[in-house]
Design brief:
Elements (H helix, E strand, L loop, with lengths): L1 E5 L2 E10 L10 E11 L7 H4 L4 H31 L2 H17 L7 H12 L18 H17 L15 H14 L6 H7 L9
Antiparallel strand pairs: 1-2, 2-3
């Protein structure tokens, strides 16, 4: 038996040898007889076709058509599952779309609530751990660093990094909540705030004293 491929089908032919002179022929030749066809994607041999094939022919079709089809189907399934579980291509697509949105936002600013959702989604991403190389670094002043960070944050707000606040529900936004935490960390009356620490060390006087 041999196979001829035509489009998405494997055409099955059975061959037999016709000896010289057996049919008034002057020379021997191979005679082909069509048996049936099967889809190249078939993972099993259809029952109607099975009844027309010998055990050897069944094994032949199984090895040439069905086994490769099952392997391709399994590989496709694995690729589909890997893509479904892969966040990378989704992040790349999101970055591309956000870049296009940023280019167009000057003329049509994005609602603050929308930016809030974007920031919340980004904050939920888990990043790969990076290898930290031990290096000798110059010691810094935490108060100076905090001042620099606050000035940078103010500049970011001014430049539109966080957009405009929504007309309603401002206190539920991530930006407002972060500001409240920052205010409490700096001027809060609870232990652990910068104000309380400076007061304890005598750099800042308590009110009424």
């Amino acid at each position: 038996m041999h196979i001829k491929i035509r489009r998405n089908y494997a055409l099955l032919y059975r061959s037999n040898w016709v000896p010289k002179g057996s049919a008034d022929n002057t020379h021997g030749y191979t005679q082909q007889r069509y048996v049936g066809s099967i889809l190249l994607t078939a993972t099993s041999i259809p029952a109607p076709l099975q009844s027309r094939l010998s055990s050897d022919e069944l094994s032949f079709v199984e090895s040439k058509v069905c086994t490769p089809a099952r392997q391709r189907a399994a590989e496709q399934q694995r690729a589909t599952e890997q893509r479904e579980n892969d966040p990378g291509w989704r992040v790349e697509e999101a970055v591309r779309l956000l870049g296009e949105a940023a280019d167009r936002s000057a003329g049509r600013p994005v609602a603050a609530a929308t930016l809030e959702r974007v920031q919340q989604a980004v904050s939920r991403l888990h990043a790969k751990s990076s290898v930290v190389t031990a290096v000798t670094t110059k010691s810094t002043d935490p108060l100076t660093d905090a001042l620099t960070a606050i000035r940078a944050a103010a500049q970011a707000v001014t430049s539109g990094r966080y957009g405009k606040a929504p007309a309603e529900g401002v206190r539920t936004t991530r930006t407002y909540k972060t500001w409240s935490q920052l205010l409490d960390a700096v001027q809060g009356e609870n232990d652990g705030s910068l104000l309380r620490a400076l007061q304890e060390c005598g750099y800042v006087k308590r009110r009424g004293r």
